[in-house]
Structures are given as C-alpha cells and as structure tokens.
Amino acid sequence: FGGQRFPGNAGGALDFETAGFVGQVKHVKQLSLAELEALACEVERIGFQKTPPKLGVVVVKRRAGKGQKTPRLIVVTEAVWRELNGGPV
Length: 89
Description:
5-stranded mixed sheet, alpha+beta
C-alpha cells in the first residue's frame, strides 16, 4: 500500500497509513476467523474516524513453512467494500 509504516514494536493499532487507507499487516501460521473479523472491524473503525475518512484493510500472509509460497490476502469489512465499490455487495 505504500505510505507511512509504523514499527511493529511501537504497540500502535496501525501498521501503515496512506492518503486513503489505514491497515494492519499479519504474517502468521494461524489466525482464527474471529481474530481476523476483530482486526477488520478495528481498522474499519480507525479509518472511518480519520479526517478525512480512510478505508481500513487487513493484509494477511500465512506462514506455511520454508519454501512454501502463500498469497497475501486483503481483508475488508462489508462497509469498507461498499465504500470501495460505491454500492451493494
């Protein structure tokens, strides 16, 4: 996404912020659906509170083990999806 990155050990709620987006990045072996949902809701809330409002995203990459490639997933809430696409899902 580019923009400003925040150090992982700073303890903040965001890992990056751009002109239009805020987000968290997770590189994990496991992440439950409930945890992913909570992260997406948190970054949505933070983004919509910005002036001007920004869209919150979660970037997830699964650690599958050495030499095992996995794609990055971009996760957003329905509200963010609607803002991105200007209408119903």
